[in-house]
Amino acid sequence: MPDLKLAPNRLRFLIIVLLMVGIFFRFFNIDGKVYWHDETFTSLRISGYTANEVRQQIFNGCIINKESFAKFQSLNVEKGLNDTIMSLETEDPQHPPLYYVIARFWVRIFGNSVAVIRSLSAFISLLIFPSIYWLCRELFKASVWVSEVAIALMAISPIHLVYAQEAREYILWIVTILICSASLLRALRLESKDKAPRRILTWGMYAVTLALSLYTFLLSGFVAVAHGIYVIATARFRLNRTVKAYLLASLTGFLAFTPWMLVVIDNFLQFDSSTAWTKMQLPPRYFN
After folding, report:
1. What's the 3-state SS for the chain?
2. Are 173 and 96 in contact (CB under 8 A)?
3. What string of pLDDT tens digits covers the 288 residues of the chain?
4. What does the CA dihedral 12, 14, 17, 21 come to, rounded to 10 degrees?
């Protein structure tokens, strides 16, 4: 009996069609939607300016035209990469800098149009397919078709299609979560087989991907907690070699994220102010 069961031809054909459709709609009409509030703040961070500087230079009693906003929505010689990071530190510490650093280099290479900046998210979204395939292969070792069906579902998932055309970090966050989770499962699977050098490599990969996920979005901390619960539960709450390796790898990932955690702590009042909207009590009629 073969170890791997291939999906039926008809199912595989449907999966390929759905994948092609999903890829198509990730790029279709990418510049036709309104460049909304949050995306304008992405451009602001890429430019290296802060909202306070915008208020000081634009809201001065004079007539405001679109040219007045141009330098705050594009790269210019006045601001560098360090200014992009500093603007996040002082005004948006809840948004770690990884996506914005990548976006700044992307815009520098390809231009500053709406299509270009959104296309970064669209191309990043393509990494979801190999990532979910890898994760499913680690979860369901003998079932290739499960991975293929997962790819098809991710391809046409409405929320993924929306984030794939949005100039924000959320699609990158999804990719990092998938890769981080898959690398953890791989490290656990190979734990009993690997010798010291390879163990360092597999657990080191988990530490790196965890750090990248944290530098993409702060809520990756909850993903790390879920990983910890899973590892400890599968070890039956014993402090064995696997748990020790996991703790060391996760600690390394969090230590790598320490610089930005210090930024969040140092700017906690701004962090609390920027996220205050999440605590608002909305009336029941708002949801009707």
Report:
1. CCCCCCCCHHHHHHHHHHHHHHHHHHHCCCCCCCCCHHHHHHHHHHHCCCHHHHHHHHCCCCCCCHHHHHCCCCCCCCCCHHHHHHHHHHHCCCCCCHHHHHHHHHHHHHCCCHHHHHHHHHHHHCCHHHHHHHHHHHHCCCCHHHHHHHHHHHHHCHHHHHHHCCCCCHHHHHHHHHHHHHHHHHHHHHCCCCCHHHHHHHHHHHHHHHHHHHCCCCCHHHHHHHHHHHHHHHCCCCCCHHHHHHHHHHHHHHHHCHHHHHHHHHCHHHHHHHCHHHHCCCCHHHHC
2. no
3. 444 444 578 888 999 999 999 999 999 999 999 999 999 999 999 999 998 888 888 877 777 777 777 778 888 888 999 999 999 999 999 999 999 999 999 999 999 999 999 999 999 999 999 999 999 999 988 678 899 999 999 999 999 999 999 999 999 999 999 999 999 999 999 887 766 678 889 999 999 999 999 999 999 999 999 999 999 999 999 999 999 999 999 999 999 999 999 999 998 888 777 777 667 776 666 555
4. -130
